[in-house]
Each structure stands twice: as structure tokens, then as C-alpha cells.
Amino acid sequence: MTETMHSDDRANAAAVLSVRDLVVEIPTRAGTLRPTDGVSYDIRAGEILGVVGESGAGKSMTGNAVIGLLDPPARIAGGEIRLNGERIDNIPRDRLRRLRGDRIGMIFQDPLTSLNPLLTIGEQLTETILEHLPVSQSEALERAVAALEEVGIPAARARINSYPHEFSGGMRQRVVIALALCAEPDLVIADEPTTALDVSVQAQIIALLKRLCRERGVAVMLVTHDMGVIAEAADRVAVMYAGRLVELGPVREVLTRARHPYTAGLMASTPLASLGHARLKQIPGAMPRLNALPAGCPFHPRCERAGERCRENPPPTLAACEGRAACWFPLTPETEESAA
Amino acid sequence: MLAYVLRRVFQSALVLLIVGLVAFAMFRFVGDPIDNMLGQERTQADVERLRTELGLDQPFPVQYWRFLEQAVQGNFGLSYRQGRPVSEILVERLPATLELAFVSGLFALAFGIGLGIFTAIRKRGFAANAIMTLSLIGVSLPTFLIGILLIYVFAVELGWLPSFGRGEVVAIGGWTTGFLTESGIKALILPAFTLGLYQMTLIMRLVRTEMLEVLRQDYIRFARARGLRERAINFRHALKNTMVPVITITGLQLGSIIAFAIITETVFQWPGVGLLFINAIQFVDIPVMAAYLMMISVMFVGINLIVDLLYFAIDPRLRVDRSAGKVT
Amino acid sequence: MTDAPLSPVREARAVKRFKRAWDSDFAYSFRRSPVAVVSFVVVAILILAAVLAPVIAPHDPFDPATLNLMNGFTPPMTENQFTGEVFLLGTDDQGRDVFSTILYGMRISLFVGFSAVLLAMVIGVTLGLVAAYIGGWTETIIMRTADVQLTFPAILVAMLIFGIAKGITPPEFRDQMAIWVLILAIGLSDWVQFARVVRGATLVEKNKEYVQAARLIGRSRGAIMLRHILPNVLNPVLVIATISLALAIIAEATLSFLGVGAPPTKPSLGTLIRIGQEFMFSGEWWILFFPALALLALALSINLLGDWLRDALNPRLR
């Protein structure tokens, strides 16, 4: 499959979310950090984009920037974010607030702490619905019940007046998903939605996300460090390293024929039964801290393919290398064959 | 729920029994009650007669039981100093203290919670920082110094408000109130402010700390992510969660207002039970001390009990958890 | 290790240790906090002044021979109209030099404060350790007592203890005993905090490997508590002690002000304020003002220091 995502116009027209050259900065005493540096990607309706990387790679920061929930002093320092073609990175706070929950839903990592323990799930659902949709109290309640039914809460009508602690972890994450989706957003940002759950429940939640995405045509940004979740759920995958996007492509392509050495290393170190790796390898070293990024390509100290060029020049942008891997010496089908 | 309430009531009763034991021990062993009641001219017969009359020849548990019996009926004997029944003196003095405590408690609660929320929401604002700095000074200031300062400014220098007493009071049944006369209300202002200020500062700092903690929680972030208004987030989501721990501690704070009234009443010569207690200590008037101790214990234990039940009402997790014992 | 008083090795080690202490986060945050530095300096000056009172004070307020009633009510820094003497902070009704009475009063306030906190600390730490380490009924009784006492404000408990102790002491000894009774009253009213914190910390430490190991090699309970657990719970104890000191000084001042503390023959700052209050309406403001100012400086600076200490030792709270 060849990637010709080059024509920006076509991609933009279909994209629900379009991020261009996004830079997030955190000014600190020791200088300005860039947890997200020049990231660009699109998510289309009905598509799940997996964003993957080690902790600290800037995955969550990117998601928080999109929904406008960066904790000060972190701020968007450059680039654009468009939702359905409309810029949302520079709009007034109150308009952005109205978008949240309405056009963009968000799912957090830990369902045990995402729900207010002192309000019933019905109260939390209806307050969200009433905030965003012009409906009456009773209609909001009906919609709340419907939302719970849709995410697979049994006996939803009876349980609407229950408090969060009366649900199990998996059920609570379903409630969280219902909350994120109850105002029918176009985009859902799921930040590690399965990390805090039991393995058996993880699969159910992933299946639920996939179903909702297909049925409703929601664009989903699935942030995770779990390659298994990516393989299971994502249509396309974006790999992040030290705040930069290093590889972006269809999930099968990236997982089986990674072009960026980091992605390849990540795959080799991930136990994925479906991909049939015999032995796990690890990437030497650790991701550099944001205040101590090496010159050139940030991955070069750990990269076995690195050359002179990588030490001196920042890697090419994704657009410049036909949208796949931001690398001077990407793995190509030929090199892969010769290596095999 | 019922089991929990019963257990709390049982615990409260136990505390009162222990306090009763302390009060009784004071009666019995601090100084000789007979010495205190009979003058210098006494015969051995007098002593024996009084000993039997007071039941001092009975075994200790019997004496304690009789003391409790009397105490429950409000009978604490005669004040050594005034020679009148202690209960009569207490009832006479109580309205003054309760009115003072009520007004300062109201003041402390309203401003404490209000300013606490304000300083938490406007965490980095100039006003919030100024209030926090002032409050630290306020906590460090001994109450009586604040009282003296207020007297100096408003009574001595400006002459706006009286420096001592209750002003004119109106008797309604057995209750004397200062709320109905102008001089009564004027006299109330300085003492109530003095007494409430310290509690207000504590409540404010507590509310602020708790609220900041709550505002860091995931569910607040999630509420933001759902696009709720700041006002809904601050007052519906954050405040309710803040109030759970605040209610417990605040309840106890308000209870201690009655105890701290001792200091304020002395500074302003406010004719309440606190001033009575201080005078009792100065003159070693044991029956008054013991009765005051019992009275204030009943109030404290009662407030504690109410606070616990309130806690129970506000936090749904406790209503279902069978292991409610962890909340004490 | 040798016992040579200052062998070069030892000296070098001491220098190194000082350097390490100076460079530590703790010292750094101290140097960085102007509030901490200022309050530390104020506390140090006040304590020094109190300790050196007999040297600094121009008069001995407790020696009737040096008093001259003619000097009564002399305003600060003005010549007395009868004797021509000048007093830095004026004199009180009996002609005592206010500056001197403050120095001596502070001595008593600080002595009572420190002793009471020491008493509370010894009782609290011991009971806390014992409760956590022995458990069972001992623990229940200790902690229940703590709970019941905590129901009542410390100042009320202190008043009560003072009242009872006064009742037990024969009247002729009451003034003499007052200071000791004060220490006892404040100390007994304040042990609970220590006991609770030490118990909590001990319960945590008790199950750590090193304590288990010490138990396995047959150390006695007492030895384990003193040598292994105690040093590990001292940090929170130090914080509570600082805060308790401010509270104890305020408690002492309050009790003395209320007339149930230090007697006029041995006045503490609180007693001085009580005396001074009588002259507030007649215009002799300095008799009240300067003792109040001294108490304020003392309480405020110790409190600010304690507040800073709590934050410095508990970075999570910031």
C-alpha cells in the first residue's frame, strides 16, 4: 500500500481533527521545555488514530492541548488545531469550554477517580447533557438512560441513581465513556482508557470504543503506551518520541513493517502474540529528558542506524518523507529483506 | 446505619461517664468537701453528720453513682464561693455565653467558608495572598491580645463601642437576651468578633487546603473535559467534596468556641459561664468547676455526635459501606 | 573511633558534614525563604535576650530594694519628674522598669513553654511508641484516652488541670508552685499530638525489614524501639514540637492573662499584659503595649518558623 496523504486539501476536507505543527511549551527555571514539538496529524470520522510512545513522549500533552486542558504554565506555542475545519487553538476560553463535552469528548485513564464520588451517575450525566443540548430535565434523564444502555450498563434505568462506588472498575469506565459521548461529540480523546483496568475488562472496553466509533462515525484519538491495544483497536497509528511524531501510518503497515528505527525497536520489545516474535529485544538506553535533548535527531544516541547526519541535523519532517517516518535512514522494504 | 448510630451514641455515653468520673473525683478528692462546707468552728459530730449526709461513708462506686444521679438531675451542690446552687448560677449565666457563641460561630462559618473558597479559587491572586498572610498572623495572635487591641481602638480611642459587659438585656421567660436592645447589640460586636476571628481563620485555611486538594482530583479534570462551567465545577463538584472533611473539623471548631469563650468573656467582662469558670478556678470553687466541665462535655459530645451523623448524610460511600467504623 | 577531641580527620569530617548540611535541600529552602530567616533571627534574639536577662536588664524587677515608687508611671524615654531617671520603655505603677520586666517575663514564658513542650513530648512519644509497639489493650487505653482528651480544646484541659492542682496545693505554696503547675497543665494538655503521630509512624516502621531483622537477631523490644524506631519518627516530632512551642507560649500567656497562671510576684508576659490592661484606660499605654509587642513577636516568629519547617520537611504539602 502506498501512502499518498500528501494532498492536504483532500485530507482536510474529510478530517474531523486536523493538527498542524503543534508546539506545546512549558517554561521552567531550567529553560523552556517542548513536550510536544511540531506534531501534525489528521483524524477522520469513524477512524481510530492510535497515539503511542513511552511515558513522557508527549502523547497525553498532545491530547490535552487539543481539548484545551493544558495545566498552566504549559501552553500552545505554535501550530494550529482545527476541528471540522475550524481553528480551535486560539478561540476564547468560554467558546472552547462549550466545545468540550459537546464536540470533543474525553476519557481518562482511571475510572475510579474520574467520577465525582458524591454525585450519582445520573446527576453527572444530566448536568453534562443539559450544559450542551437544549433539552428539558426529563428529556436529559431519558438521554442519560439511553447513553448508559448504549455503553452496555445492564438495567440502566434502575442504576441511574447509583453512586460511582456502587459500580465495578470496568462498569465505571463504561460510565465514563457514556459521559464523554452523551452530548454526541465528533471527536473523542481517550487517554490510556484501559491502563487501569483488568486485562479481561480491557478487551471489552476496546470493543466498546470500536463499536461506538463505527456506529456513530466518531473520530477517536486513542492515546496509549500499549502496543496490544493499538494493534487491536487503531486504524492508523502515530508513534511519538521525545515530543515529536516519528512515524505515522496504517496500523498493519507500521506494526509489521516499521520504517522508523524507534518504531522497529518498540515493536521488537513488545510481546505481541499475533505478530509472532520469537524473542524480545530491548532498545538500549532511555528516552532523553526534555531538558537534555541531544542535537540532531533526539533518537540518535540509541539508534543503531544513526550516521553523521543524524547527529548534526534534525530529522526530516514527516511530510518531507512521504508521511511515514521522520528519519534520515528509514528501514525500507529492501533493507528489511537484506536484514532477514 | 442504625448500628452505626447506636455505636456512636454508646461511645458518646462512655465519654460522658469518664468525664463524670473526673468531675466526681474533683468533688471528692480536691480539697476536703467537709472543710469547704463547715467553717472553723465545728465538732466531730458535725463532721460525722455531714459525712453521712453527703454519703462520703459509702463505697466509691456507690458515691459515683449517686453523683451521676444528682448530675443528671442538674444538681451539682452549692457553690463554695456564692453559697447558691450551682445549677441556678449556670442557668442564669448560660444565655450570655450561648448568644455570644452563636453570633461568633455564625460569623466564623460564613466568612471562613466564603474566604476559604475565594482564596482557593483565586489561588494566585493578590487579594488571596494578602488574606492568607493576614490569616497566618491571625492564627499566631493570642485571642486576648486581639480583644485588647479591639478595645483600645474601638472603645478607648474611638469610643464607638462599649469595652465591657452585655449592655441592656431583656428577660424572656428564664432567658435574658441582648439581641433586643441597641446597647446589647453594640456590646456584642467586639466580643463576637474577637471570639470568632480565630475560628474563622482556622476554618478558612482548612477550606482552602481541602478545596485545593479537591481541585487537583481527576474528577474535576473530567468535569472540565465535559465542558461544565467554572461555577458548576467550583460550587457543585469541588465544594461538595470539600465539605466532607471540613464539616467534621468545623463542627469540632464550633464546639470549642464555647470553651474559648472563657478567654473572650474575661477580656470583655462578659457575664457568661466562661467568666464564671475562670473565677471558680481562681477561688478553687470545685462544684462550679465540676458542673462547668460536665455541662461543656455534654455540649461537645452532642456536637460531635451531630457532626458524625451529618458526615454520614453527606457522603454516600458511608451509607453503603458496612465498614463505617473507619470513620470516627 | 578515637576520642581525641579534634583530630584532623574529625575536623575534616565535621567541615564536610557542615558543608553537606549547608548544601542540603533543607538548608537551601531555609536560605531561600526570607520569612524563615527573619523569624529565626527574631526567635534567636528573643531567646538570647531572655537567657541573658540578668546581664542585660538595667534593673532586677524582683528585687524590691532597687525599686523606687517615685519612679511609677514614667513614660518611655522621658525624665521622671521626681527622680529624673530615664527608662527605655517606661515604668509600671510600682516603678518597675518595663524593659526589665519584659526580659524577665519572657524568661518565664520561654521556660514554661520549653518545659511544657518537653514534658508533652516525653509523655507523647513514650506513649505513642508503647501503644504502637505493644498493641492490644495498652494501645486501646492510651489511644482512647487521647481521643477523649482531644474532644476538648487543650486550653480548657490546661485550665482544668491548673484548677485541680491549685486545689490540691496548700494555699501558702500556691504562688511558688504556680510555674510548675503551669508546666504540668500545659504539658499534659498537649501530649496527644505527639502520641498520635509517633504511633502512626511507628506502625509503619514496625513492619519494615530492618525492624524485622533486628527482632530476628534477638534484640529486645526496648532496644528496638529506642535504637531503631525512635530515630525514624523524629522528623514529624520535631515539626510538632516547634508548633507546640508557639502554642504552649500562647497558652501560658493566655492562662496568666486570665489570672490562672504565673502570679504577679513572678510575672510572665501574660501576667504583665494582665497588669497592663488595667492602665489602658488611664493613658499609661506603655505598660500594656510593650509586653504585648514582645509576646506578639515571640509567638508570631515561632509560628512562622514552625509553618516553614512543616513545609520544608513535607515537600508534598506545597
UniProtKB/TrEMBL annotation, chain B:
Q: Which GO terms describe its cellular component?
A: plasma membrane
Recorded hits in InterPro entries, A to Z, give: BPD_transp_1_N (IPR045621), MetI-like (IPR000515), MetI-like_sf (IPR035906)
Q: Name one GO biological process term.
A: transmembrane transport
Q: Which Gene3D superfamilies match?
A: MetI-like
The protein's matches in SUPFAM superfamilies, at most eight in alphabetical order, are given as: MetI-like (SSF161098)
Q: What is this protein called?
A: ABC transporter permease
Instruction: List the PANTHER family hit by this protein, alphabetically.
Output: ABC TRANSPORTER PERMEASE PROTEIN, DIPEPTIDE TRANSPORT SYSTEM PERMEASE PROTEIN DPPB-RELATED
Q: Where are the transmembrane segments?
A: 12-30, 100-121, 133-155, 246-270, 290-314
Q: Which Pfam families match?
A: BPD_transp_1 (PF00528), BPD_transp_1_N (PF19300)
Please give, as recorded in its UniProt entry, the membrane topology of this protein: Multi-pass membrane protein
Keywords, A to Z? Cell membrane, Membrane, Transmembrane, Transmembrane helix, Transport
Its main subcellular localisation, reduced to a broad class, is membrane
* Annotated compartments: Cell membrane
What does the similarity note say? Answer: Belongs to the binding-protein-dependent transport system permease family.
Q: Where is the ABC transmembrane type-1 domain?
A: 94-311
Automatic annotation (TrEMBL), chain C:
Q: Which SUPFAM superfamilies match?
A: MetI-like
Q: What is its main location?
A: membrane
Recorded hits in PROSITE patterns, A to Z, give: ABC_TM1
Single GO cellular component term? plasma membrane
Subcellular location as annotated = Cell membrane
Residues that span the membrane, as ranges: 35-57, 108-134, 146-165, 177-198, 229-251, 285-309
Q: Which InterPro entries match?
A: BP-dependent_transpt_permease (IPR050366), MetI-like (IPR000515), MetI-like_sf (IPR035906), OppC_N (IPR025966)
> Which residue ranges does the record assign to the ABC transmembrane type-1 domain?
106-306
Kindly give the CDD domains that the UniProt entry links to this protein. TM_PBP2 (cd06261)
- What GO terms in the biological process aspect are recorded for it? transmembrane transport
Q: Which key words are in the record? A: Cell membrane, Membrane, Transmembrane, Transmembrane helix, Transport
Membrane topology, from the record: Multi-pass membrane protein
| Transferase keyword on record | no
Which PANTHER family would you find in this protein's record?
A: ABC TRANSPORTER PERMEASE PROTEIN, OLIGOPEPTIDE TRANSPORT SYSTEM PERMEASE PROTEIN APPC
Q: Return the similarity comment.
A: Belongs to the binding-protein-dependent transport system permease family.
Output this protein's name.
ABC transporter permease
The species is Rhodosalinus sediminis
Print the organism lineage.
Bacteria, Pseudomonadati, Pseudomonadota, Alphaproteobacteria, Rhodobacterales
